[in-house]
Amino acid sequence: MGRPLFYEIIEKPATSCTIAICSAIWFYVQRKNIGYAQLGLSYETAMEGHHWRIITSAFSHISVLHLVFNMSALWSLGVVEQMGHVGLGVEFYLHYTLVLVVLSGVLVLGAYHILIQKFKLEYFRRVTAVGYSCVVFGWMTILSVKQPSSKLQLFGFLSLPISFAPFESLILTSIIVPQASFLGHLSGIIVGYSIAWGLIYGMDNYWAISMLGWIVLAFVFSLKRSGAFDLSFIEIEPVTDPSLPSVGFLASGNGRTLQMDELPLVGGELV
Where is the signal peptide (predicted)? Predict the structure, then answer.
């Protein structure tokens, strides 16, 4: 007999919480009938100031199969939390999840910018990426470097050697799921190698909390400036240079309303 699920949840607290958050967001989005175009990340919306989509796109999913596939892989990769003896562990997992979410999103936008501006591929201007697999591919890559003898278990019956899993999964998902975001998955792999090889290092509780604080501030002000959410307690007014805002905090007024703009898309990408 296998171990009770309860004990595995206790041993993977950060992974379990992430899966719960992604699942709760998916149920909320389905219940409110919110489309992925309203939460996903695209070059066009980023240029319009919707930088908050770097966060919302990572935790949103298009379908239940998309959610199940990503969360199944993430659950298997949660073994990272149990590897404190090799320099990983829960704190490492939490610290670098922040890095993976933000940097993989920034890399995707950077890739879109190059394809649009240098190669004139206008298709990528409005392609929208949604999903947590940028982070999944990042952890897959980190584990392949730190613990190459491990196995990646998917759906309880599929087992892949972790040392080859990042690029095997990159190729397979691109073939099996044509809508899968090749650039999104590749961005996760690049950030994953940067962390595993020590190119990105030095994250501790102080830097993680500081980074989280800046992410929250940037998220809130991006919501306000883009007009996606009415934050009545924040006022942003232009000063002498319109590009430099002055920020004032006001007493909270009436209830807040969510305003989602319809976005015409060329296509969507699963990440």
Answer: none
Q: Which amino acid is at 31?
A: R
3-class SS of residue 270: strand
Domains and CATH numbers, the chain: 5-270 (1.20.1540.10)
Annotation marks residue 133 as catalytic: yes
**In this structure, what is the dihedral angle of CA atoms 236, 210, 101, 136, given to the nearest 10 degrees?**
-160
Nearest to residue 72, comparing CAs of 163, 157, 193? 157
Nearest-CA neighbor of 35 among 62, 9, 17, 8? 62
Q: What burial class does residue 198 get, using C-beta atoms within 10 Å of its C-beta: 0-12 exposed, 13-18 middle, 19+ buried?
A: exposed
Give me the residues paired with residue 247 across strands: 236
**Rounded Cα gap, residues 80 and 139, in angstroms:** 8
Instruction: Enter the pTM of the model.
Output: 0.85
Q: Is 246 a catalytic residue?
A: no
Q: Three-class SS of residue 184?
A: helix
Q: What is the pLDDT of residues 42-85, one digit of tens each?
A: 999 999 999 999 999 999 999 999 999 999 999 999 999 999 98
Of 133, 144, 150, 187, the catalytic one is 133
The residue annotated as part of the active site, out of 185, 187, 194, 222, is 185
DSSP 254: S
What are the Cα distances from residue 184, in Å, to 88, 116, 154? 24, 16, 20
